[in-house]
């Protein structure tokens, strides 16, 4: 009997399988995140507040793990786009420090930043740089039990009239260091550790970071502290174009026109129904829930809701079929919003005829952002 080994699959089949697994995980995770948000809105004592914060962090780790697995598969298939946006390098580093400082404090570690740059505003793929630096800090947190972790950024080229400058980003820790002979294997996907404190078992984080950097004409490098102490320094260099336009830092006020309106929620998962309906109620929207295409068509004809949220995967049924039925049978349907845990691109989903996409797991702010966008006049 031939062994059904994952490694025997083609890259495209691996990506399909991992996307399917991702979908199966994202849907219950949506419920967990929603329940946590609801719990956070209740009256909690100090201990309970701390427990909820730990739960939120655990959810973030799980979500990052799912994204890491999919990113690894996509990068192996060269499915990768660089999206440059104006950003403040100081802002990026401070945001990451703020995110990880509580985790460092839990281990009794100091999390510092050292920034030595002149040209602060650049064009950069914000999401990918944050992903790489977050992976490096996560890695440092795993293997550092005392001392500190430092996030550094130095401008390597002098200030002049050049449109581009080189920057070195680094994460330095005072942890266990890199075992001799393991310097190369730590960049391999899921290298297995031979001891609990061995850095030769860091999962996908370093591998994905290096693959991302390769697509940005860079690579991850490793060094030991210059003073001979224990620890490790992971660093990379990027050449980035300057920009004079500072990024918008003010958080957009999310308002919408749907308070007091009616919504229909079509999803075959009872927990997703409960969580999403609760989010809509907090936006002062009256919501009804159904589980099937037939029920949805009846309810749409009866109530003509202003908002129709449709899960793309309805058990054996397809949300795209419901979308088509509504468009063919209802003269003036409400706004049609897709909810999905699939890896279909946003453009693919909008091409089906949906007006907006909510990708599971989503929180109340993501929902409010969609409602706000739908309230804007068409461009």
From TrEMBL:
EC number: 2.7.13.3
Residues of the Response regulatory domain: 262-375
Single GO MF descriptor: phosphorelay sensor kinase activity
UniProt cross-references to PROSITE patterns, sorted A to Z: HIS_KIN, RESPONSE_REGULATORY
Enzyme class: transferase
Catalyzed reactions per annotation: ATP + protein L-histidine = ADP + protein N-phospho-L-histidine
Domain Histidine kinase: 20-242
Cross-referenced InterPro entries: CheY-like_superfamily, HATPase_C_sf, HATPase_dom, His_kinase_dom, HisK_dim/P_dom, HisK_dim/P_sf, Sig_transdc_His_kin-like_C, Sig_transdc_resp-reg_receiver
Entry protein name: histidine kinase
Claim: Phosphoprotein is one of the keywords in the record: yes
Record keywords, A-Z: Phosphoprotein, Two-component regulatory system
Sequence positions bearing 4-aspartylphosphate: 311
Superkingdom in the source lineage: Bacteria
Database matches in PANTHER family: HYBRID SIGNAL TRANSDUCTION HISTIDINE KINASE J
């Amino acid at each position: 009997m031939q062994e059904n080994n994952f490694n025997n699959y083609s890259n495209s089949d691996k990506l399909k399988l991992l996307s399917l697994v991702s979908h199966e995980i994202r849907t219950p995770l949506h419920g967990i995140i929603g329940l946590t948000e609801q719990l956070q809105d209740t009256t909690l004592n100090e201990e309970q507040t701390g427990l909820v914060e730990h739960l939120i962090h655990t959810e973030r780790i799980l979500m990052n793990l799912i994204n890491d697995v999919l990113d690894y598969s996509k990068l192996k298939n060269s499915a990768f786009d660089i999206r440059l946006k104006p950003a403040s390098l100081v802002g990026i580093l401070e945001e990451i420090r703020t995110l990880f400082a509580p985790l460092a404090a839990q281990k009794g570690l100091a999390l510092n930043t050292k920034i030595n740059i002149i040209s602060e505003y650049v064009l950069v793929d914000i999401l990918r740089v944050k992903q790489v630096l977050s992976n490096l800090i996560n890695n440092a947190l795993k293997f550092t039990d005392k001392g500190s972790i430092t996030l550094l950024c130095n401008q390597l080229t002098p200030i002049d009239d050049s449109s581009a400058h080189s920057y070195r980003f680094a994460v330095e820790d005072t942890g266990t260091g890199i075992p001799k002979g393991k310097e190369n294997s730590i960049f391999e996907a899921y290298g297995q550790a031979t001891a609990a404190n061995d850095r030769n078992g860091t999962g996908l984080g370093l591998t994905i970071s290096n693959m991302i950097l390769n697509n940005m004409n860079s690579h991850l490098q490793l060094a030991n502290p210059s003073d001979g102490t224990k620890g490790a320094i992971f660093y990379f260099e990027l050449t980035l174009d300057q920009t004079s336009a500072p990024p918008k830092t003010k958080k957009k006020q999310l308002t919408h026109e749907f308070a007091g309106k009616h919504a229909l929620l079509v999803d075959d998962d009872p927990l997703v129904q409960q969580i999403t309906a609760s989010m809509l109620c907090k936006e002062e929207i009256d919501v009804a829930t159904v589980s099937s295409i037939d029920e949805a068509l009846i309810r749409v004809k009866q109530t003509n809701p202003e908002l129709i949220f449709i899960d793309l995967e309805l058990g054996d049924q397809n949300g795209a079929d419901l979308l088509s039925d509504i468009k063919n049978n209802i003269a003036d349907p409400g706004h049609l919003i897709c909810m999905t845990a699939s890896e279909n691109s946003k453009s693919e989903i909008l091409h089906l005829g949906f007006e907006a996409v909510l990708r599971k797991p989503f929180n109340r702010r993501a929902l409010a952002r969609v409602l706000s966008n739908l309230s804007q006049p068409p461009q």
